[in-house]
Amino acid sequence: MSLIDSLKDRDRVFDFMAPQASPVDVRHGPILYMEDVTVSFDGFKAINNLNLTIDDGELRCIIGPNGAGKTTMMDIITGKTQPTQGSVWFGSRHNLLTMNEPEIASLGIGRKFQKPTVFEALSVFHNLELAMAADKRILPTLTARMTGEIRDRIEEVLETIGLTALRHQPAGILSHGQKQWLEIGMLLMQRPRLLLVDEPVAGMTEQEMERTAELLTGLAGQQSVVVVEHDMGFVRSIARQVTVLHQGSVLAEGTMDEVSSDPSVVEVYLGADDGEAA
Amino acid sequence: MQSVDSSQRFWLTRPFRERATQLFLGVLFAALLLVTVLHLAVPQGHPLHVTAYTVNLFGKYLSYALLAVSVDLVWGYLGILSLGHGAFFAIGGYAMGMYLMRQIGDRGTYGDPVLPDFMVFLNWDSLPWYWLGFDMAWFAFVMVLVAPGLLALVFGFLAFRSRVTGVYLSIITQALTFALMLAFFRNEMGFGGNNGLTDFRELLGFDLRTDATRLGLFLATGVALALGYILCRAIVTSKLGRVSVATRDAEARTRFLGYRVERFQLFVFVVSAMLAGLAGALYVPQVGIINPSEFSPIFSIEIVLWVALGGRATLYGAVIGALLVNYAKTVFTGIMPDAWLFALGALFVFVTVFLPKGVAGLLAHRKRKTQEQKNQARKPQEATT
Amino acid sequence: MRMLSRFLPGLLCLCLLFGLPQAVQAQDDPGQPLLEALDTSSYADKAEAIEVIIESGDERSRRWLEALLNGKLQRHKDNQRFVIVLENRGRHWPVADALSFEEAGEMSRRELDRIGINNALRGTLQNALSLLDLYVDDADQRRDAARDLLGNVDASMVEPLKAVIENEENAEVRRLLSQALAIYRLDQGDVEAIADLEGSLNQQVRSVLNSAARSDDPVLADAASAALAGIEQKLKLNQGLETLYFGLSLGSVLVLAAIGLAITFGVMGVINMAHGELIMLGAYTTWGMQQLLPGQPGLALVLSIPAGFLVAALAGIAIERGVIQFLKGRPLETLLATFGVSLILQQLVRTVISPQNRTVVSPEWLSGSVMINEGLSLTLNRLYVLGFALLVFAGLMLVMRKTRLGLEVRAVTQNRAMARSMGIRATRVDIMTFALGSGVAGLAGVALSQLTNVGPNLGQNYIIDSFMVVVFGGVGNLWGTLVAGLSLGVINQVLEPWVGAVLAKIIVLVFIILFIQKRPKGLFPQKGRAAEG
């Protein structure tokens, strides 16, 4: 870390002075702007002039064939990938391109991966504990004690995701669907302003899917949620706004009905060009 | 529910609540006491008498055990396989050795009141700057922790910042200790070159060659092991310990939760290096020499074997492994020295292929089985209540 | 028989005494008049005669003049025959015919007349002898003679030397001779001589220029200094080339040692700590081959190339099947297990063969060196190893790019699961890859046996360096390994004269450790999605 960066960090020495609430400025409506974003890997443009705006409290579904750039888009928002050009803003105050992953996470952007990744060696309870919004520097983490308040909050989320009975089991023994929920639960613990959810129902049973849909729709309003999903039935059941990505840019946007009647979308989904199998 | 309860306590005292730690400390102190009694109270020549030589040997094993605990902390809980922990051990040892050298004073072969013999031999006319202060015990003891900690801090800062992990990290830790070994072999470094530092006389005024001092060092090492163990336990049972485990299993995920993973890695790595340095400092007065061979990559990788044999991510497994392997080494090299490397090599293969969880894993497995049997026995009763 | 052999020379002698065919032949021999000319009482005439002999180019000139110088060229008083005295002790001296050099029995010293010389002639003769080789037909011989003259020219030789230079056809010899002459002229204070000395790397030339540079004559001193500066520059260039050569040589060894590792590490993600011991096995195979074929080190070495490959490859397969296959997806455990294997292999060699180093003989065509110029010669064995390394590299490239195995290996590297579903038997590919990587280690061992001692610790000395090369070059990239190996070798050699071998090595290690921080994926990282995994 350069000297300048460490100097910049100085204003965070007194964390108790910083306001607890997320400092995101959403007075102008949108919580996320992506403008003219392009990413190329060795000349291949994974994202090509992408423009996307998510409003505060919105639930947005993003669909698109494989290779449309959905995962790369999430990588950009969470700071894992740097775009070749373009700008990404969180609210109208934070330029996400200048921040690293933990900084972005602590701003209030949570992400659920395509493959459920929970900490398998830790118990369900501890998985949620780690995800909780808290002082995540070293010494506070070392000396952190469990208070009744924290435990209540964890229990509350355990209730929400239906894993109360399994709270002391290691997360490794959970079923696939349970891991997906645990991961959503971990996102809830973070109290994010913006939730990025990558294929939440892959490999779930019909009932599990319904429950997940309930969970996600319940979240919208307090939090903004972006869901990337392949399963059209599921998208139809939760989506109000749908964005279709194709070859790294937005192909269509609107309600599910509008989008599915768009001829270009139909072509992309039904056309023979879709080289990769899903 | 017990875990929730204990997590409300002060982090350093948390381990005392754990059964396993209580058991470990109990066994350790009982062993220390037993050896002391058998050494002091049982007359020489009696079959149960523990000789000063054996006490000394046990003391050496205990310092290895502390070293193994420090490796288990980073490998078991952080997933960083350090093949260079011997370097921290050796640096701690050298810091202690420098103090012991200065204690010799003018009783060396050349009788120089300040310069150690090897410097007189090399025609140096004054102490190099980095030897200053080592005539003071407190300074040397601080350096025992600070010097390895500082190396770990710089190395770890560079490595973790650029997210060097896995086998890459293992390889460069190995390169680090190899480079240090080459460096310490050079006479120009001012650490006695090939021969290292030796011919020590006294520590804090106690003559190192008396049996009483040896017993004292043995006990001090035992206490250090206990304290190191408790500290490591406190770390791994804290939330920080859970962040470490999270990092070990899913580094990227931990980062997305908002933890600055590299700082946690650095913290644990530095603590571990300091413990290794402490182990080295306790080792040196007991064996009476420190030379660059402690930096050799083979030694470092052997430490990892102790941990693997004992069972990683348990801490007590590391202690068991260190004691077992080193006892076996003493026995083997005594009766058939040629066979030792065969045995050691075979042990590496055997442990990794057939015993991935080590001896501790075996113990836990048996415990779980008996637990299950108990549960099954209890189940009908529970059903009725 | 012995009687006869004793008797025969006497018989011959008798024949000669009576002026039989031999004497007749002597009259026809072109050497006869040359020697006749020497038999004169005038020393001036003798000097002239000597010159005539030199210019004749007669092959026998050297022996004649040497004999004359030592007072051993004599003439029989009665039959006027020229002889060379072989030993002048006692009354009867054994002699040889001066024309045919055939032994001609013993002659009484009273019968012989010595062709006398004085001190002036002695000097002339000595110079003449040193010039003599300049008249032979073989250009190489003339060049060596010319080189010997550097710094050994004196006044009496100047004139003949000038003549020789005039007639010399070979440019190289002419240049050397003018330099020899120029050294003399410079000693005499001739500034213009310096022009002839410019650019020469010869020690003699440099020392005479050095002393000239300290001369009182400012013009001379300046010119000499300028010439010296030019020479220094050329020397530096030479030194640079030499360092580069040694660096490339060291680098080629590193490449050989590392490239097998690059394959197993890059393709399978497997850290094989026993790689060094596979190298050692290759080296011991060479040694064993030489034990089997005593007296034919060259043939043994050539046969060792396939044999070393095979032995190491089989050992590699054994390691893969016996250990590594059980540790799939656990790279750190693999590292530990293979380290155990390396300990066992080392101890095995110590117990079965010997803990001592074994010497592997270098065949003749591998020893010696190629001389590039006076300041630079390249040892042949290193040159061969460099070539061998490049060949092995090219071979591997070919296997990876053009064969079915290479295709499958690349497929498995990029996406194991996908490759499997395409019907590639990943297990078989693993075995083949491991065998290939191990076999190449064996080849490295064969090459190393020509450069270092073969002992149980041979492999250990290379394992860390090999890892450094692979990591530095970028895992899974053969070109990266080549570039990394060669450049690390050169860096090491460049640093060595400044800081010493050990410190150079330390610096290189530290450099790589820092480099990995900067570019964790090495010089040539794999890009795109595959690299993320």
From TrEMBL, chain A:
Domain of life: Bacteria
UniProt xrefs under Pfam families: ABC_tran (PF00005), BCA_ABC_TP_C (PF12399)
Entry keyword Ribosomal protein: no
Keyword terms, alphabetized: ATP-binding, Nucleotide-binding, Transport
Keyword Metal-binding in record: no
Molecular functions per Gene Ontology: ATP binding; ATP hydrolysis activity
Membrane-traversing stretches: none
Domain ABC transporter: residue ranges: 32-272
Any one annotated GO CC term: plasma membrane
Protein known as: Urea ABC transporter ATP-binding protein UrtD
Organism whose genome encodes this protein: Vreelandella salicampi
UniProtKB/TrEMBL annotation, chain B:
InterPro entries according to UniProt: ABC_transp_permease (IPR001851), ABC_transptr_urea_perm_UrtC (IPR017778), LivM-like (IPR043428)
Gene Ontology molecular functions: branched-chain amino acid transmembrane transporter activity
Subcellular location: Cell inner membrane
Keyword tags: Cell membrane, Membrane, Transmembrane, Transmembrane helix
Positions of transmembrane segments: 21-41, 87-105, 136-160, 167-185, 212-232, 264-283, 303-327, 339-364
One cellular component term from this protein's GO annotations in UniProt: plasma membrane
Membrane topology: Multi-pass membrane protein
Name of the protein: Urea ABC transporter permease subunit UrtC
Keyword Plastid assigned: no
From TrEMBL, chain C:
Alphabetical list of Pfam families matching this protein: BPD_transp_2
Stored PANTHER family: ABC TRANSPORTER PERMEASE PROTEIN (PTHR11795:SF447), BRANCHED-CHAIN AMINO ACID TRANSPORT SYSTEM PERMEASE PROTEIN LIVH (PTHR11795)
GO MF assignments: transmembrane transporter activity
NCBIfam families for this protein: urea_trans_UrtB
Lineage, top ranks: Bacteria, Pseudomonadati, Pseudomonadota, Gammaproteobacteria, Oceanospirillales
Transmembrane segments: 244-271, 299-319, 383-400, 467-491, 497-516
InterPro entries: ABC_transp_permease, ABC_UrtB_bac, ARM-like, BCAA_transport_permease
GO cellular component terms, A-Z: plasma membrane
Name by which UniProt lists this protein: Urea ABC transporter permease subunit UrtB
Signal peptide from the UniProt entry: 1-26
A Gene Ontology BP annotation from the UniProt entry: amino acid transport
Membrane topology type: Multi-pass membrane protein
Domain of life: Bacteria
UniProt subcellular location: Cell inner membrane
Keywords: Amino-acid transport, Cell membrane, Membrane, Signal, Transmembrane, Transmembrane helix, Transport
Principal subcellular localization: membrane
Entry's family note: Belongs to the binding-protein-dependent transport system permease family. LivHM subfamily.
CDD domains per UniProt: TM_PBP1_LivH_like
